[in-house]
Amino acid sequence: MEIRPASDRSLLVSFGDAISLETHRQVLRLVRAFEVLPPGILNLHPAYASVLIDFDPRRRRYSNVEALVRQRMAAAAELAVSDGRTVEIPVCYGGAFGPDLEDVARHTGLTAARVVELHASVQYLVYFLGFSPGFPYLGGLPTELATPRLSAPRKVVPAGSVAIGGSQTGVYPVDSPGGWRIIGRTGLRLFDAAATPPSLLRIGDTVRFVPTAETRL
Amino acid sequence: MSSIRVLAPGFQTSVQDLGRFGYAHLGVAASGAADALALRAGNLLVGNSENQAALEMTLVGGTFEFEAAAVLALTGSDLDAGLPLWQAMEVAAGTILRCGASQSGARGYLAVRGGIAAPTVLGSASAHLMTGVGGRALRKGDVLPIGSEFVREARKQTMQPPTGEGPLRVTAGPQASWFGDELIRAPYRVLEESNRMGLRLRGPAIGSPAGHMLTEGVALGAVQIPPDGQPIVLFVEHQTTGGYPKPANVISADFWRVGQLRPRDEVQFELVSMERALELLRDQEQWLYSLI
Description:
The complex is a heterodimer of chains A (217) and B (292).
Chain A: E1 2-7, E2 10-14, H1 21-33, E3 41-46, E4 50-55, H2 62-76, E5 86-93, H3 101-108, H4 112-119, E6 124-129, E7 136-139, E8 154-157, E9 161-165, E10 168-171, E11 176-178, E12 181-185, E13 206-211
Parallel strand pairs in A: 5-13
Antiparallel strand pairs in A: 1-2, 2-4, 3-4, 5-12, 6-7, 6-13, 8-11, 9-10, 9-12
Chain B: E1 3-8, E2 12-16, H1 36-46, E3 54-58, E4 63-66, E5 70-78, E6 88-91, E7 96-98, E8 104-112, E9 143-145, E10 168-172, H2 182-185, E11 188-190, E12 198-202, E13 216-217, E14 222-224, E15 232-234, E16 241-242, E17 248-250, H3 255-259, E18 266-267, E19 269-271, H4 274-289
């Protein structure tokens, strides 16, 4: 674990520079250790192998936050990190909801049906939520499905769009611009600010995509 | 409950407080006032606690009708309202406040005694305009109730506005060692495509390092370098994580100046130590609290 300042009000806790289950568990441990934020700690930004911690510089000093992180991580070292929940996400693949499915099939040299079958055949780990509200960074996309992003991002990707970008896959929780290839759509709401908790998915959860007819969305 | 009626919203006006904290792990950015110093000063002037919600106006202010007598303060950018800035004042029922184009800076704030009683979402009344979390930009016909909570009497004296001369100060960012000193060598210009999410700058391209970068959390005020070498300053509506390297981060004491930058303004960066950054923040806090 390496800790260094990122700004005068934040520090970056890093667990290496690889995407792996081991580093993910460390990230998860740190997030769990700060489930309830102490006064003066404003936000945690977990990612693949690091956690950025924002603090209020009027109430906390860097050295104080660093000590707090080391102390809580030491206390959490023995803690077993429980597995997350498994969340099934129904997806209507292709057609108007998945305008890029054929492109992904062409690029990968597979049939559209095989792309869907492969995409729905595995379990994906929610490494973290980031970028925009409720957006899951998922690990586990079968390597055969990797497809480059669009050369020009779409101005609006509808909420619920399931997409592939490079070697990653994800779901857009809210309407937003985006350059990933859209292969389907879910009717599940991944982010609802009025709900408790507001995000359907949590860091450490497992996701399965389940092919579904349009009428069932 | 008295209220403010929006007769014209201006270019981009929204309800803001100091932001939404504790949800970055769900991808929710803090948002909040782009010039938090002006928002806090406005609140302190009218006797509110510093986090109460006020209106943030951008480049061109709105026109507002006060349905009952109110105590208000205009801070930040001079939006040509024909009223004194940085001073609490009483307006009568039926008063129409007309703001115009900004004469200086980018954002002006209208704070009212009692605060704007906007609904809070995840603990904050701040609108995150890009995602709609917490609200949207105001429209003609919107009615904003005024709250009744305040903590002290309105201040009688006018306050001297903060001065923001000279380079924008930065501390070393998480990937500072990947870069030379290109960022601080030449001035950059603020592009039109800038908004609350980030300020896009144009100037000498900064060599993109070959380092291996995993997506990681990003801090408010981070200066990131995308592959085209043109810096982006991540601002109050920034995404919570990102994959571009960050040679520098604007210091907390200069955030308000970022909120006042306009398209075509020139920005020169200056590197300072962490100690200096905290010293400047302490001075700024002392100055602000001398108001009370």
